[in-house]
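Subject: two folds for Thursday's group meeting

Dear M.,

Sorry for the delay on this. The cluster queue was jammed most of the week, so I only got both jobs back this morning. I'm pasting them in the order they finished. Each block is the input sequence followed by the predicted structure tokens. Could you check whether the formatting survives your parser before we put anything on slides? The first protein is the one we discussed after the seminar.
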Amino acid sequence: MKLLSLIIPTYNMDALLPRCLDSLLVPATLERLEVMVVNDGSRDGSLAVANSYRERFPQTVTVIDKPNGNYGSTINAALPVAQGKYVKILDADDWFDTTALVTFLDRLADISADMVVTHFTVLHDDGTRELTKYNVYGREPYDYGRVYPLDDVLRDGHIRFFLMHALAYRTELLRTMGYRQTEGISYTDTEWACYPVFRAADIIFLDINLYQYNLAREGQTMDPKVIARSLGQMEQMTRQLLAFYGAYDIETLSDVRQAFLRQYLTNRVRLLYKCHLLDIPRSQFNAAHFAELDAELTAACKQYGLGPIRLYPANKLIRADALRWWHRHHRRWPRWFEALNRLADRLMTWLFVRIFKR
């Protein structure tokens, strides 16, 4: 059995896919790794590129060619046939540190935890690199290589959410829970970082900087311009998360797990408010649509025991609640106040990276 199945969703990535695959396919990985390139109806040469690697590395690379169904459909197509002990997602415009991958495979041979968490590097469009760990202001609260009951980690409160780039799961866990992602929209990697938390029993942290997350590519889904155009999809994704929580038999979960998931969903709702009230350009803000969305989210928060929602700026310097302002005045902050807030955000981000993420 392979140690790790890597699912690589691919749509119109013929220029970047070789870099991704070359970072994986070295002699020390070939026998232990399954690389599953899922071509999501690409209209460029992505399928030809994937097939050329399958021909060169038939013992490692498999190709799934399917009609376009967006991100979640690629995971749903690959997961049922994955052969690895563990499974992880790698986007085609990103790559792995090759040396770290070899070390990661070495460690997976002796691990049986449901969740495996590693570091990742964020590459920004200004050329800077940011190492991301699950730590608290430079202090790392968990011993690397030690298996923890997940409830113990969630109880501590150090971790408010997980991110796709850091996560690998035991494949059988996902199959047992019938894991599926929403199809037809973007941002469903949020489900990958959320739904398994309902079922996972234990977790291990490894001191390995594996995933290289490329935010520098124009058109990347986390590009602020793309987010502004895709807010409807983000809204739909938030609805999916709330619906999953509402349909789950919550009473089967520990109080710790329930509290963590409620806080997680509260933060997802807050993020949606932030996109509308703080992030998107004023010219794209639709007050009537937002009023309807606000009523929907307020009802959901009441139904599921979420909140309260406070929308303070990330900079921690300006202590003004943007959502409270909306509820009082039914408009966004004044232009001058938004400009002041953006300046404070940039300043505190600059300081945080240099102090805690060197």
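Second protein, same layout:
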Amino acid sequence: MKRFKLYWKISLTLLMLMAVVGFGYMMITGYIGKQYLKEVNQKLYGTIADSTVMMNHIWEEGEIDTVAVQKLMSSMMVINPNVEVYLLTPEGEIITYVAPYKRVKLKKVDLRPIKEFVSAKEKPYMEGDDPRYPGEKKVFSAAAIKEDGKVTGYLYIILASEEQAAVTSPLSGSYFLRLGASLFFITLIGALMIGLLAFWLLTKNLRTLIDTVRRFKEGDYQARVVHADDSDLAGLANNFNEMADTIVGNIDELKSVENLRRELIANVSHDLRTPLAIMQGYVETLMLKEDEIDSNQRKQYLQTVHDSGGKLSRLIAQLFEYSKLEAKQIQAKKEPFFIAELAQDIFQKYQLLANEKGIKMNLNANNNLPMVFADIGLVERVIQNLMDNALKFTPSGGEVTIELAEKDKSVEVRIEDTGPGISRQEQAAIFDRYGQVGKEENKLKGAGLGLTIAKKILELHNATIRVQSKLNEGTTFIFQLPSYIEVA
């Protein structure tokens, strides 16, 4: 019952709606029935006034023969006790009448419907004043009384008197009530059965969708609405399928992130432990062999401790930077600047380190390069990470080159080295979190987050980074930044 709650609500609403419509139908049927009786009455007896005027002499010596009129009216009442007969002046004033109980309250009636009725060739359905009940309208028959071609009065006959209404109203009301009720219940039962069947068929797709949602909620993540485009609820079904795909994708991504998090923790623990172990070992050696170590060895040991502390500090800084980028706490503050000037500054900073390692540095940049639109601090961080990576893996006697060129309304930056290169299989993993490639001894040279941080920063600029490399031939990292003219 709960599963089809909406179906029963719709069905109950349909039943209530049909009940209201049926009641209105009965009321309308009763009203139309009464109007029908009135119109039939007027059609049958609408010419009675004309016949009476033609067959009887109402004038005597230029005046209305009141006695003759009274006798005429009484005769008509005897023949048809349901009528009320009135004699009117040309202005509509009541001269005399024959009506039950003598309860006439009007002295004058409205002549407009009477004149319209008299002038019509085909007697229309029309109602006029009821002298016994001011404000009420009744069907009537009327004829003009003429003398020497001049209208001298009107014979006005109410065809449905109060007495007739008292008898016919309950009968007609009861008849039409029974007729309306019978038709209503027959229609109600038939329409309700058809409606319930129709709603059952129309809500089939909705029930299918509800069942699919229930299965998905219970853990069946492969549950989807089959043939969603053909469903009556195509929009809802497609939205559910897309939502389910998104949720499953998010779950898979969370699982992947969790696996990477565990791997990251393991790798970070290893890299943190390595410099700490080195520092701890040399400090313990200094403490235990303080009297046996000469000044040169002491200086060498302290330098090793200092270098390990520097590596540990850089690792922690990279981890903080990476965590902020992952949490989207760093936003790019873009502005126009000359990237050639930035590259020149970075080139000068790394020149001394390159000379110490015996590596040749090159900078190739056109003087007419346009300005780029980016965050200068973050772009500097990207180039520095790529330079660190290039100098780290380039052996003595090798070369590292920074090359800038205008390309496709943007500036392309290339960082090339002549290091050992990266195999095609390993290239897909170098930008992953804590992904490291190369020989085992290379893993001790850095935290393995430099390329991942560079990729994250470029994603903030809607840019991508790619690698070109062959084993024993070196590696080139390439990215592009939009020129300021294009952005403007």
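Two things I noticed about the second structure. The first strand starts at residue 59 and ends at 60. Residues 128 and 485 are 88 Å apart (CA to CA).

Cheers,
T.
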